[in-house]
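Re: weekly structure request thread

Next one in the queue (337 aa):
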Amino acid sequence: MRKIIFFAFLAYLIIPVNIYACMIVFYKQDPLIYEISHRAIIIYDSENQKIGLIPQISFKGRPQDFAVVVPTPSVPKLNSVSSTIFYDVEYLTSPITRWREDGFGCSYVTGTAEDSTSRVDYGEISIINEKTIGAFDTVTLSASDPDALINWLKENGYRFSSNDKSILDYYIQKGWVFTAMKFNEPALMDTPCNINPIIFRYSASSIVYPIRLMSINTEDSTNLVIYVLSNSKMTFPSAVVEYANNIDDNELKEIEKNYPAFAGLIGQNRYLTKLKRTFSIMEMDSDIEITKSADNKEYKGIIYYSVSTLKDVLPMLVAILILLAVRYIIVKKRSVC
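Done, posted below.
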């Protein structure tokens, strides 16, 4: 047992490890809690003008303190997807690791289920449907007046304020609908990692990410990472491309084997692009449109690991020597006994 612990700890010191935290889709229910980052998977069928949106937001706080509101340009159909979907796509698009002969350290190198709708009107608020999808109780609604929408949200536990009126009115005037989601009681007993995200499937002629609404709940800045599956490489203004790959048949087989949850999303749209950008609160005054890139050039990041100077290696060598000394003492004592 001691040998297992020893070599496991030794491997921890030597081998580079990527650690991914659990993230879930949440929106503000407490004014003191702020979103800190956004991730989303988007499947875009340009030929049929269909979009699948799977949003995920990391957060601070407890699940019962949160709710989420997602605006879409048309009425969405909702389904849950695998809880591992974001793990799959993150590992799939992670940089390739290679060893260099000199230098220690690292450097980054470029290289549905159908929804039935039953609309119920309450004056300026129209309830399109109410459903329980996995861990979430959902309500899809439209509004003709931002004050009426804010009042409805407040009455149902979503703590919007009158300061949010202009932002909500922006989507109302565009004719968008809102899907409000909160955790149901059974979900509060589960762990965050076991919560299945929701996919929103809707019709749209272009991909518009509603980052303006997210500004309601952003303190200073927010990170945005979007994975787009389409028939071509995609981009948006000032986005950094961290991965771009037109998935061929052989790659698809490997993805189906190693990343089955994500493989189920691919279909005919095989170009996967990973886009990243940090937005300040001042840059979130309008939504972003994700469009076709000017080129279809593929890109996969590479991280090089290698050994160089004694200064870089010395801390690790000292740690290894200490562990070896401790192990020697333990073995010596056991032999005496």
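Residues 1-34, 101-116 have pLDDT under 50 and may be disordered. The two ends are 18 Å apart (CA to CA).
Next request, please.
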